[in-house]
Amino acid sequence: MVRRLPSLNALRAFEAAGRHGRMTLAADELNVTHSAVSRQVQHLEALLGVGLFEGPKNRLALTEAGTRLLAGLTAAFDQMDVAVQAVADTVDGPLDVSCPGTFTMRWLIPRLYRFRDVHPEIEVRLSASSHPVDFKRDGFDVAIRAGKGPWPADAEVIELFGERTGPVLAPSVARHGRMDFSALTLLHSRTRRHAWQAWAERAGTAIADSGGIEYEHFYFMLEAASSGLGVCIAPWPLVADDVISGRLAAPNGFIDSGQSYVVMRRARQHRKSSLFCEWLAAEAKLFAEA
Question: Is residue 3 part of a domain?
């Protein structure tokens, strides 16, 4: 198949000018002069035999043909960018990391400055998600998840630490020594509806099904617990700092939940994702030992 396309420089110049709506902004993006962008656009118009812009120079507007061409070119350049990033092996540029929101807020972000200190050239872009990982569908490079698996066959999986869970509540509500929580309001989150039942079975205790209060987000539930509204089941990594600082109390301690926190990366490894995963594994080891 022979593709009869105009020059890539002309297409890039027009796409940038059409997207910004001004030749000067396109020139800044492409690091060329205003006249260079204008010449490339004029060359493209002559080659295609249609006008792509209309109106005065200071108020350019796309023609119908220009609008159609811009839509196709922007989508094509976006796809090209994704394809290039998928095979590029550099430490430059952003690293997209998918991670459950509460884990991001309470464990990852407080430690992320140490990665930035070592690798300031790598921009870590975080997105919150707990959904199953599909590297063929999703655009991120690295994913952190908690669970039992099975994990995607096309990903390299590194276990960070086993999960331990336990009841936490405000110190003003807690008593010294182990507690039963039958007289307190049980707090739940939609993301872990059966956390109390799972903990009770592993702890060898019984929990009355008294309803309690359910929160849409896990961190809402943790804030409710720290405010004295009840008691909830939480994983140690998400409340460690609060327990150590005295903002939350854990009178019954924490027990193994049967799940693990893992980090996954695409089977085709890039140096920046390898560097991040190696750092993350080292941080997890320090946390588990502490």
Answer: no
